[in-house]
Amino acid sequence: MSEQRSPAPAQLADGLWTIHHRDFRAGGLRVGTRSNVLRLADGSLALHSPGPLDDAQVDAIRGLGEVSVILAPNLLHHMFVVRVAEAFANARLIVSPGVTAKQPKLTASEVLGDRLPAALADVAEMIVLDGAPKLQERVFFLPASRTLLAVDLGFNLHGMTGLTWLAMWLNNANDRFVVTRLARSTFIEDAAAAGRSVAQMLERWDFDRIVVSHGEVLETGGRSALHAAWAWAI
Q1: Which of 73, 125, 132, 213 could pair covalently with 138 via S-S, beta carbons 3.0-4.6 A apart?
Q2: Strand 110-111, strand 92-95: pairing
Q3: Residue 160 is part of a domain; what is its CATH number?
Q4: What confidence tier does 6 reach under pLDDT thresholds 50, 70, 90?
Q5: Is 175 left (phi over 0), alpha (psi -120 to 50) or beta?
Q6: CA dist 201 to 109, 116, 132, Å?
Q7: What is the number of structural domains in the chain?
Q8: DSSP letter string over 5-61?
Q9: How many other CB atoms are found less than 10 A from the CB of residue 63?
Q10: Are strands 138-142 and 125-128 parallel, antiparallel or unpaired?
Q11: 195, 233 in Cβ contact below 8 A?
Q12: Close Cβ partners of 55 (under 8 Å, ≥ 6 residues apart)
């Protein structure tokens, strides 16, 4: 029997890679998650929202270059940051507010506010998703590849089966880019404020691709998909 290999970083564009951890489960549901890698202006790498990277994947990322920044830009996606911070011990850790309270072993170099960290200058822009304090999400735009890089701004789940399919059907979230019903009721506390943030993204940023943590990369049509998913709040 051949040994199953962990997925290597898949290149989405020049200076942008992703690893899809398809088997990751949350609440028993196989919703997957992502680790993303982007090249910074100085040639080093930023690791965005790291997931359950195994040793082979850590080595593969090292093969792309030196990781100088680890970004934890969402309060819910913190479970794997300690392990990744140990693997890339020389990297600066930049986190959303509240991440270190959930992971006391972490020492952050910078806590994200409403301004783009200097380390990401010239490669990214950033907007805070307001109205969702339980997420504390920062959304990034990468102009060079016209990519919107997010975490829980939406789900893009396709081909689900079993209990996951049923749960996503109840959330109106199968085979489409969407904000789930659960997210609306649990994490979006001020829909008008969140809608204003998304409207800013649509107004300021000329993106086509969307990368979110749960589901497939939306390679094209991102602007219309984001507008449709958030039409209830914009």
Answers
A1: 73
A2: parallel
A3: 3.60.15.10
A4: confident
A5: left
A6: 27, 14, 16
A7: 1
A8: PPPPPEEEETTEEEEEETT-EETTEE--EEEEEEE-TTS-EEEES-----HHHHHHH
A9: 9
A10: antiparallel
A11: yes
A12: none
Closest CA to 58 of 8, 105, 18: 8
Model confidence band, residue 5 (pLDDT cutoffs 50, 70, 90):
low
Rounded distance between C-alpha atoms, residue 62 and residue 198, angstroms = 34
Q: Is the pLDDT of residue 183 over 60?
A: yes
Contact 125, 145 (CB under 8 A): no
Residue pLDDT, tens place only, 117-153 = 999 999 999 999 999 999 999 999 999 999 999 999 9
DSSP symbol at 201:
H
Rounded to two decimals, the pTM is 0.94
Other Cβ atoms within 10 Å of 69 Cβ, number: 21
Q: What pLDDT is recorded for position 2?
A: 35
Q: Tell whether 2 is covered by a domain.
A: no
Output the six-digit token pair for 102.
């959930």
pLDDT(196) > 90: yes
Judging by beta carbons within 10 Å of its beta carbon (0-12, 13-18, 19+), is residue 98 exposed, middle or buried? Answer: middle
Domain that holds residue 102: 10-229
Rg for the chain, CA atoms, rounded = 17
4 occurs within a structural domain: no
**Domain-embedded: residue 5:** no
Structure tokens at 123: 């490669």
Q: What angle do CA 215, 12, 134 make, to 5 degrees?
A: 40
Predicted pLDDT of residue 9: 96
